[in-house]
Amino acid sequence: MGLSNKSKEILAGPLSKNNPVIIQMLGICSALAVTSKLEPSIVMAVSVTAVVAFANVIISLLRNTIPNRIRIIVQLVVVAALVTIVSEVLKAFAFDVNKQLSVFVGLIITNCILMGRLEAFALGNGPWESFLDGLGNGLGYGIILVIIGFFRELLGSGTLLGFQVIPEVFYQWGYVNNGLMILPPMALIVVAVIIWVHRARNKDLQEN
Amino acid sequence: MEELLSTFMRAVFVDNMLFAYYLGMCSFLAVSKNVKTALGLGIAVTFILVCTLPINYMLENYVLKEGALSWLGAEYAGVNLSFLSLLIFIAVIASFVQLVEMVIERYAPALYTSLGIFLPLIAVNCAILGGSLFMQQKAFANAGVATVYGLGSGIGWLLAIVGMAAIREKLTYSNIPKPLKGLGITFIITGLMGIGFMCFSGLKI
To answer: Residue range B95-119: average pLDDT?
Structure first.
């Protein structure tokens, strides 16, 4: 493809080695609350990716004109405007999912991924790199969200995207859905397991 | 009075910001390494929640909500500005945090040095914006109830972060599988605490 090595690194880094959720500890709040089903997880992942990528571009274009003291307010306003657009789009085209996500669409504004990437990357890099960085981080966040949503919906309700996956026979043999998986605290445990697996495979990431 | 008390208790235990909605998780995980700083951040969050909720409540009910502008005259009665609420709420919160920072810096330099680093962090703490958004969703009867709700959610958050910090201080001495150390075990403990807090969810107050 036409991407240089550096661009590839910016795009692919956040997917695993530098994942926003499980390594940088950013954006955890929403990663946990919306993942009891697969569908809202996917919608949330797409929304956050779009907002991060475009916020990164806008802040990167403005980076030389923003006074340092008020930069947080400027960043918040840019992000809030983008989130308002996303929220109106969701209301128009995916009303049911929007209802399920409730306040968490609005809370994309305070999703730490946004502030973290804007502060750490967009303020010091050009628009194209910032766009790739936003895209990469959004996707990294999305992967984790989809994994959590997948396991919670599969084990908790036996469905995926609303379709029955576990065959009816299993239930007749005595299989029972694990109701605990639907409850919010289990999201944390699933994340912990993901971290465990990820760090067991990448020894250099382990903490002392 | 009864309504205030029940709103308060619900906000602290039943609808705990952290364990029921996961708000403010990022700073919760980052700052819960020792009890003292956790307490400082908890107090700062509570303070900002108590101050911004009534302001946002007023804005919501007299400016943003559908028909809220009718006090300006009959021709404004149909105006619905609620799509602006995200922008307005976050602007109020961010500017209030900045204001508090300046006031504390000017009049209480000692407090400023101990809290200083947390103050800018608070503007992007989801618990604060979450408080305003839940306030909008729950449509409280008056600004007093909204303030009490803010106080309650702040104190619930404070309890959670202080408890977590205390547990993490003890964890330093325990034998944890290597890949789980640090972040992993913190998640598991938060999950377990969340399950504990769920026993409040059946309470009718």
So the answer is: 74
